[in-house]
User: Which sequence fits this backbone?
C-alpha cells in the first residue's frame, strides 16, 4: 500500500530501530504529537473500550477536515494516539476513511505490543473512523 | 534447576528470558512435556471404558494423577477439574445448591480472587443467600472482624495465599474458628500448593481447590479435594458419560466415587502431565526453596523501595515470594512493556482481584513473582531492567 509521506516517515523510523526497548522509547516520544483532550471532557462516550489503560478520543470534522484530541494514562497508549494523530489530523474525512491500520504493523509497532494493547490500537483506529463516518453523514 | 526447564533457555527480544510471572503460571520441566508427548505418541485412548491395551494405559496414566494427589495432599477424595475456578464453581453447584437455603450466610474475604467471589455472587442470586466479606487492613485480613462476621455462617471461603500480595493468611486459625461454629470451609489454594507442603486432613478444611499449572503441571487441569463429610453432602452437577452407573430411559444412577463429578471425557494428557509434575515436585524441598526465594524477594523489595516504588507485599516469613508494586508516575503497563523489551516477564493489572485493588486505592500493580527456578541472577537482571526503565522515563 502507498502511504502518505508522514506515515511513510513513521514506518521508516521504526524499521530502522533494532532494539525493542528503543522502539518503545520512540513510540512514547510520539505522545508529543497528541492534542491533549482535557480531563474534564473525558466521558463514557469518548472512552476507548478494550484498552487496558484509561484512554479517551474525541474526533471533530470541520469543513471536511479531520482533527482528533486524545488522552491516556499510559505513555505508550499516548504514543499510539500520537501516531494516529499524525495519520489523521489535517486529512480529509474521505482520506481518513480510506486508511487502514496496517501501517502500525508495517512499522513493526503492533508486533511489539501485547495483544490487548494491539487491540487497543485497532479499537482507537476504528473509533476514529466510526466517528468520522458518523460526523459526515 | 534451570536446565530442567527448556523454555528458560530461550531469548525474548534478544535477551535472556527472566520469567517472573509465576503467580500467573509456572513453566514446565522437560519431564512434564515428555510425559504428555509420550502419552499422545504411544498411549492415547479414552479412559474408564474400553478393554484394549491403549485404553488401559491411558486409564492407568490418568488415574495415577489422582493417586498422587491423594497421597501428596493426604485426602480421601480428589475430584479432577479444569482448574481452581471450576473446582470452586463445582462446590457452589454440587454442594451449595443442596446445602444452602435462602438467608444462609457465606463468608468471603476482600482478598479473594474473582474466581472465589463471582460463583458465590451467582449462587446468591439463585438462592438468596447472604454474602459477607472479611475486610483487609494494611494488606492483611482483619481477624477481629472475621471472628465477628463468623456468627451464623454456613460456609467460609478463603484464599490461602494471596495472588496479588503473596500474603499467607492464618488458615489454621480460620479453619479452627469456622469449625467451632459448624461452618464448612473452602480453601482457594491455587497460590499455596506451589509453595508449601500441605496436609488436607490435618488442616481440617472441607474443600481445597487448586490448579496444576501453578505447580509446574499443564494448564487446563486442577483438583478439588473434599473431606469425607462434605463429599457425602454433594450432589452431581454435570450429567453425562463417565459419571453414571446405569442409564435407562426412566432415569439414571450415578457413580459413588469422584467420577460422579467428572462428566465427559476428562483431560487425560493433562492428567498424565500433572502426574509427572507431582513426581518431579516430590523430589524438591519446597521449604528450603521457599526460604531462598523469600530472601531473594526481600532483597528486591528493599531495592525497589530505595528506587522510589511503593511495595504492597509485606513478605512475612510465611508469605510467598510475590512482590506487588507501583511507581508514583510510571503506568504499570508502560513499566511491564519496557521490562519485556529486556526479556523480563512480569504481570500488570488488577490480577483478577478488583475488590482488593479498590481497598488498596489503586487500579493495578506490577507484580514480580518468583518460583523454584528463579535465582539471584534473575533478581539482578530484574533490578537492572528497572533501572533502565527509570532512566528512560526520567
Assistant:
Amino acid at each position: 500500500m502507498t502511504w502518505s509521506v508522514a506515515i511513510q516517515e513513521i514506518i521508516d523510523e521504526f524499521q530502522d530501530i533494532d532494539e525493542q526497548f528503543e522502539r518503545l522509547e520512540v513510540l512514547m516520544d510520539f505522545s508529543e504529537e497528541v492534542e491533549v483532550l482535557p480531563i474534564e471532557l473525558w466521558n463514557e462516550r469518548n472512552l476507548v473500550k478494550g484498552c487496558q489503560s484509561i484512554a479517551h478520543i474525541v474526533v471533530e470534522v470541520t469543513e471536511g477536515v479531520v482533527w482528533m484530541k486524545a488522552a491516556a494514562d499510559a505513555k505508550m497508549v499516548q504514543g499510539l494516539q500520537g501516531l494516529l494523530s499524525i495519520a489523521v489530523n489535517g486529512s480529509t474525512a474521505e482520506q481518513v476513511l480510506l486508511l487502514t491500520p496496517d501501517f502500525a504493523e508495517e512499522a513493526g509497532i503492533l508486533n511489539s505490543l501485547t495483544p490487548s494493547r494491539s487491540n487497543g490500537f485497532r479499537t482507537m483506529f476504528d473509533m476514529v473512523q466510526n466517528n468520522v463516518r458518523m460526523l459526515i453523514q | 534447576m534451570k536446565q530442567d526447564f527448556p523454555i528458560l533457555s530461550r531469548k525474548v527480544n534478544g535477551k535472556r528470558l527472566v520469567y517472573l510471572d509465576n503467580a500467573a503460571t509456572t513453566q514446565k520441566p522437560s519431564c512434564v512435556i515428555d510425559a504428555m508427548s509420550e502419552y499422545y505418541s504411544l498411549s492415547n485412548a479414552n479412559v474408564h471404558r474400553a478393554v484394549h491395551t491403549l485404553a488401559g494405559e491411558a486409564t492407568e496414566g490418568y488415574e495415577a494423577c489422582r493417586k498422587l494427589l491423594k497421597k501428596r495432599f493426604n485426602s480421601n477424595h480428589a475430584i479432577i477439574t479444569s482448574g481452581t475456578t471450576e473446582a470452586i464453581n463445582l462446590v457452589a453447584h454440587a454442594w451449595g445448591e443442596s446445602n444452602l437455603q435462602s438467608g444462609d450466610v457465606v463468608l468471603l474475604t476482600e482478598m479473594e480472587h474473582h474466581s472465589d467471589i463471582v460463583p458465590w455472587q451467582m449462587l446468591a442470586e439463585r438462592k438468596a443467600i447472604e454474602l459477607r466479606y472479611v475486610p483487609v487492613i494494611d494488606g492483611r485480613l482483619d481477624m477481629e472482624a472475621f471472628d465477628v462476621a463468623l456468627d451464623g455462617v454456613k460456609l467460609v471461603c478463603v484464599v490461602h495465599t494471596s495472588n496479588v500480595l503473596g500474603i499467607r493468611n492464618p488458615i489454621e486459625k480460620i479453619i479452627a474458628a469456622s469449625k467451632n461454629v459448624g461452618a464448612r470451609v473452602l480453601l482457594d489454594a491455587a497460590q499455596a500448593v506451589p509453595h508449601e507442603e500441605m496436609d488436607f486432613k490435618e488442616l481440617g478444611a472441607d474443600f481445597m481447590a487448586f490448579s496444576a499449572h501453578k505447580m509446574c503441571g499443564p494448564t487446563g487441569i486442577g483438583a478439588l479435594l473434599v473431606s469425607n463429610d462434605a463429599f457425602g453432602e454433594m450432589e452431581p452437577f454435570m450429567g453425562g458419560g463417565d459419571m453414571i452407573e446405569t442409564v435407562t430411559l426412566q432415569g439414571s444412577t450415578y457413580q459413588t466415587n469422584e467420577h460422579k463429578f467428572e462428566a465427559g471425557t476428562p483431560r487425560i494428557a493433562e492428567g498424565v502431565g500433572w502426574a509427572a509434575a507431582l513426581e518431579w515436585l516430590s523430589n524438591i524441598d519446597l521449604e528450603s526453596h521457599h526460604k531462598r526465594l523469600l530472601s531473594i524477594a526481600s532483597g528486591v523489595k528493599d531495592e525497589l523501595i530505595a528506587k522510589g516504588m511503593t511495595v504492597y507485599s509485606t513478605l512475612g516469613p510465611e508469605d510467598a515470594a510475590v512482590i506487588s508494586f507501583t511507581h508514583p508516575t510510571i503506568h504499570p503497563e508502560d513499566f511491564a512493556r519496557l521490562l519485556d523489551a529486556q526479556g523480563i516477564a512480569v504481570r500488570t493489572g488488577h490480577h483478577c482481584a478488583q475488590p482488593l485493588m479498590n481497598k488498596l486505592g489503586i487500579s493495578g500493580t506490577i507484580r514480580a513473582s518468583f518460583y523454584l527456578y528463579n535465582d539471584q541472577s534473575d533478581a539482578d537482571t530484574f533490578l537492572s531492567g528497572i533501572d533502565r526503565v527509570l532512566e528512560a522515563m526520567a
